Amino acid sequence: DAEITQSPRHKITETGRQVTLACHQTWNHNNMFWYRQDLGHGLRLIHYSYGVQDTNKGEVSDGYSVSRSNTEDLPLTLESAASSQTSVYFCATSPNRERMDTYEQYFGPGTRLTVT
Amino acid sequence: RKEVEQDPGPFNVPEGATVAFNCTYSNSASQSFFWYRQDCRKEPKLLMSVYSSGNEDGRFTAQLNRASQYISLLIRDSKLSDSATYLCVVLTDSWGKLQFGAGTQVVVTP
After folding, report:
1. What is the spatial distance between Cα A49 and Cα B20, in angstroms, rounded to a whole number?
2. Which of A71, B8, B36, B55 is deepest in the core (most CB within 10 A)?
3. Is B1 on the interface with A (CB under 8 A)?
4. Are the C-beta atoms of B22 and B71 separated by less than 8 Å?
């Protein structure tokens, strides 16, 4: 069955360290999204990609970067982790526009990141 | 003003009762709307899309009011398993980018 995996599921890191969160999908979806979820804010879009070599900034992109070298993966990098980046991070995918009969996004299980 | 606003709740509902709640959106040009369900500490999952004419899926009914820019979700005959956070979602571009509300928590009690 097609799926989305995220790793690690839990991570504790120190302020200033570089951290990379992995997202891997076997849906063969063109669209991939990274969100963070914090109490009171809901899901906020960090970065997104509509295909290989395409990346775009979301509403809370400062301090984060992504790259898309293949269809399956969109790793999220925190260049220098800050305590304000302590959050739950979700990766999601959706089909591309030409094949789309739904805008449904499929979410991974999330990564809980703590920055101390 | 947030693009998508929801009453955070919680809505405490006796089992078997009906509960309804709304969500407002700020962009009058928005075309597509959805309700997602999120269980505690889990990933969100699509509950239903919201069509212009309103739609029903079992015990769940979604309505869209474009003039007042709100979407509603009604749950009939509530089950304990309906306890969750319900996220109101608006499509923000034609490629599939979504804007999520912060969610409405529903707690169904025996």
Report:
1. 35
2. B36
3. no
4. yes
